[in-house]
Amino acid sequence: MRICVLASGSKGNSTYVESDGTRILIDAGLSKKEIENRLMLIGVNPSSIDAILITHEHSDHIKGLDQFVKTYNTKVFAHRNSWDMIESKTSWLKQENQFEFTGSDFSINDISVQTFDLDHDSSHCVGFTIIEGNKKFSTATDLGHMTDDIAKKLQESDFITLESNHDIQALLKNPNYSYTLKQRILSNHGHISNEECSKTVLSLLGHNTRGIILGHLSEQNNSKEMAIQTLNKTLVSAGVTKDDFNMNVFVAEQNSPSKIFRIKDIK
Ligand SMILES: [Zn+2]
Ligand SMILES: [Zn+2]
Question: Which ligand is nearest to the Cα of residue 190, counting in written order?
Fold first, then answer.
């Protein structure tokens, strides 16, 4: 399985996942042009995308969806509770392109898809686990808080993208954010902080996860350095040494695609 985070953050999200027989995007939150550009950068023809899976209807996750589907007639999978809002924000999506899921696993060619609910201020929000044979990739961003169920999904995955949205102090001190917006982000339906992300990474130790991409970093209330520093601090306080820590950590970018990650057959 090959994975590339094309973009991550409040200005647009999209992740490319490829198995032996299937190519999908998780979210299409960049303009169609930008999705095409970034796919082309990694040598993928946009017309070869078999399906787009949608986490939720916020525009940073569906911005380019309409135009992409208009051009490539791609199948789109979203939760039943998300479709009304997605339809209200798009005009080209035809009934025949719309596929709904409700929580049960489903397949696209040779991949199986599991979904799990995330608490977020959209009509519905999900994380995905993409499975090819014994390889599992999960993504969980746009969630107000971590739950045992979500953590369990992540623990079973070889590779994950996990939200590390903000540094709490940086957010509270930010003069450009209103009190209401701060409360929204910090609430149980907002986004998880570096601290909560780090605690989750700690809980993944001893399980299957070998690689983690920190994602959906706020441009104003976070930085790559802050996210990594918080993670390191959390690990040190928990007495985790470098030798004990068996994961590779990466940070996804807003403005450029990540490297291409491969989950190999032999672990
Ligand atoms: Zn988002
Ligand atoms: Zn959102």
Answer: 2
**CB atoms near residue 40 (< 10 Å):** 11
With the CA atoms of 94, 96, 101 and 106 taken in that order, what torsion angle do they form, in degrees rounded to the nearest 10?
A: -140
Residue 267 lies inside a defined structural domain of this protein: no
Question: How do residues 41-78 score in pLDDT, each as one tens digit?
Answer: 999 999 999 999 999 999 999 999 999 999 999 999 99
Domain for residue 72, yes or no?
yes
Confidence of residue 233 (pLDDT cuts 50, 70, 90): very high
Give the number of the ligand closest to the Cα of residue 9: 1
pLDDT at residue 267 above 90? no
Q: Which ligand is nearest to the CA of 14?
A: 1
CA 240 / ligand 2 centre spacing (Å): 32
**Ligand 2 center from residue 66 Cα (angstroms):** 18
**Spacing, Cα 248 to ligand 1 middle (Å):** 24
Residues whose CB falls within 8 Å of the CB of residue 72, separated by 6 or more in sequence, listed in order: 46, 47, 49
**How many A from CA of 244 to the centre of ligand 2?**
34
Range of the domain at 77: 2-262
Q: What is the mean pLDDT of the chain?
A: 96
Residue found under tokens 């990650």: 261
Can you give the CATH number for the domain in which 69 is found?
A: 3.60.15.10
Which amino acid would we find at residue 6?
A: L
For residue 122, report the distance from its CA to the centre of ligand 1, in Å.
10
